[in-house]
Amino acid sequence: MATSPTSAPHRVAVLALDGVYPFELGIPRRVFGSTDGLYELATCTVDGRPVRTDADFALTPDHGPEVLADADTVVIPPFGPIPDTAEPDPAASAALALVRPGTRLVSICTGAFVLAAAGLLDDRPATTHWALADRFRTLFPRVRLDPDVLFVDDGDILTSAGAAAGVDLFLHLLRADHGADAANRAARICVVPPWRDGGQAQYIERPVPAPGTTGTAPTRAWALARLHLPHTLAALAAHAAMSPRTFARRFHEETGQSPGRWLTQQRVALARQLLEATDLSIDQIATRVGFANPVSLRQHLHTAIGVSPLAYRRTFAGKR
């Protein structure tokens, strides 16, 4: 879905429903608006009139539902309160009926309830905010809900969890449309991490470290700068001046992951960047990111995103 510099911008329509969350409403423009004209955004309501937000103010977008008919991507930000019925809202349904077949649909947090009520998520994978998973399953049992991930990319329909996960999803869309460089630039402008795997857990209960304790962040930064080395738990713990048992416990408290799993995710993330942005061979990339051999790289990349290194490079390297 890459856009050449001379082609028309990708048209994005953001549908603000009554009770919209202002922060999430602004995510599409905040991310896509950092791309020097690759996207053209229009915010609309179901009838062209103002909508209230879940805060103490209302919003007056410049457009009515007619912009949905020309959009290449339609975004439904979250809103509240959530209906207690699976019946679609007539006004929202009438607006969505204007969307052309094949248009990419994107929801953030509770926006998935609108897509599900319209029957667009039946028998498809999706996610929403973890706190609303039980209600979502009750209302929409046909949807293959996964409340434990940040976002789900099912091709023409993408759904995300709340707030920050929406930023992750739009960086993912930008990466898919225009490659890692564009996504990384937008992430730097937004001062957010450029990539978090959609399969990462939404919600990790992390206890606040006791005063005076030493965290694992310095060791994580040290390891990130040396991913090519074969880091063992003992070596990481020694760098942090902790016993392996204490280090593993604190590492999990701070990241929600074991040191080994975290290292694998970082190595896969770096491998993806090198596949996109360099002409290094698969063997060279495997060595540089710390995998024992190219077979290990292929296995871990396939586990993470379901494709081989060569297939991934063919998809994304051309968007540099």
TrEMBL record:
Keywords: Transcription, Transcription regulation. InterPro entries: Class_I_gatase-like, DJ-1/PfpI, Homeodomain-like_sf, HTH_AraC, INH-QAR. Residues 217-315 form the HTH araC/xylS-type domain. It comes from Kitasatospora setae (strain ATCC 33774 / DSM 43861 / JCM 3304 / KCC A-0304 / NBRC 14216 / KM-6054). This is Putative AraC family transcriptional regulator. GO terms for molecular function: DNA-binding transcription factor activity; sequence-specific DNA binding. Pfam families: DJ-1_PfpI, HTH_18. PANTHER family: ARAC-FAMILY TRANSCRIPTIONAL REGULATOR, HTH-TYPE TRANSCRIPTIONAL REGULATOR RV1931C. PROSITE patterns: HTH_ARAC_FAMILY_2.
